[in-house]
Amino acid sequence: MRRFLLARGNSALADRGFHWLMVLCALSIFGIVVLIATELVKGSHLAWSSFGFDFFFKAFIDPVSKQPNYWDPVNGHFSALPFLYGTMVSSLLGLLMAVPLAIGVAVFLTEMCPDALRGPLAFLTELLAAIPSVIYGLWAVFVLVPLMRQYVNPLLIGTLGWTGIFDDTNPTGLGFFSAGVVLAIMILPIISSLTREVMSAVPHSQREAVLALGATRWEMIRMGVLRNARIGIVGAIILGLGRALGETMAVTMVIGNSTDIQRSLLANGNTMASVIANQYAEASSDLHLSALTEIGLALFMVTIVVNALARVLVWAVTRGAPAQVL
After folding, report:
1. Which of 303, 250, 10 is nearest to 138 (CA)?
2. What is the pLDDT of residues 160-175, one digit of tens each?
3. What secondary structure, in 3-state letters, does 185-216 show?
4. DSSP SS3 for 77
5. Which terminus of the chain is less hemmed in, N or C, by CB atoms within 10 Å?
C-alpha cells in the first residue's frame, strides 16, 4: 500500500509538471510575438517621432524638379507610400490570378476527381507550398521574366495599352505583373487546401438534397457546396492575401525595386518586404534604419490582422471540425 501511495504521489507530481510545461510552451508563443512587436516599436521610434502618420501617406516635393520624392536617404526624406502601393498592387494581382485556379482545383479534388488521382493531385498541389521562395525567384528570373518580356508584355501592350495600365516604358519584363504571377503560384496551394477543407465540412445531406430536387452536378456544387462554404472560401482567400503581403525573396527578384509610384502594371515597383530585404543591411543612417523598421512594424501588424480575420472566417464554416480524408 505504501508503495502504491508513493507511486501515485510521484505520478501526480509528474502530471502537474507536465501540465505546467505545456502551459509554458503555449505562453512562449505569445512571448515571442510580444518580443517581436516590442523590438519593432523600439526600433521605429525615431521615424515615428520624425514623420508620424505622414510617413505612410505624404510625399516630399523636390524643390528643383517639382516632382514627388518618396524615399531619399541622402536628405533624410522617407515615405512608405510607394511600398504600400506596390504591396497592394502585386498582392491583388496575385489574388486575381490565383483564386479562380485554386477554387477550380479544390472543386475538382473534392467533388469530381477519381479516387486514383485524388491523392497524387492533392500532394502535388500542396508540394508547391513547400518549395523555398528563392527557388520561385530563380525560376521567375530565368523563365518567367523572359517569357513576359518577349511574349506576354507585347501582347498586353498591343491589346490593352490604350488603357494606360499596360504601357511600353519598361522593356525588361520585371515589374508588378511578373511579381503578381509569382505570388499567384505561391499562394495557390494555401487557398486550394483551405477551400477543400471548408468544402469537405459541408454536410453530404446538402449535396443529396440538391440532387434530389433534380439539379445537375454543377448546380449541386454551386448551390449546395460553394454557397454554404462561401464564408470559409473568403477566409482562405484572405489567408492567401496574408501570405502574399509578406512574401519577400521571390518578389524582390522580379518586381524591379523602384521607389516611384507608376500607373502601369508593367512598371517596376517595390513592396514593404522587398525594400526591407534590399536596404536594411545597408542603411545609411539611424533615421533610415528606423524608417525601414517602421515599415516592418506596419507589415507585422497588417499580417496579424489579415491572418486573424481569415482564421475566424474559416472557423465560421468548419466550426473546428477536422478535415475529411481525401
Report:
1. 250
2. 888 888 887 788 889 9
3. HHHHHHHHHHHHHHHHCCCHHHHHHHHHCCCC
4. strand
5. N
Element (H, E) at 69: strand 68-69
Alpha-carbon distances of 207 from 85, 203, 310, rounded to whole Å? 43, 7, 26
C-alpha cell at 305: 490582422
Express each pLDDT in 298-321 by its tens digit.
Answer: 999 888 888 888 878 777 766 654
Type of residue at 138: L
Angle between helices 286-318 and 176-200 (to 10 degrees): 30
Question: Helical H runs in 44-114?
Answer: 45-51, 81-107
Coil, strand or helix at 112: helix
Q: Which residues pair with 256 in a beta bridge?
A: 269
For residue 57, CA distances in Å to 129, 261, 289 come to 34, 12, 19
Task: Quote the pLDDT of residue 141.
Answer: 93
CA gap 233, 239 in Å, rounded: 10
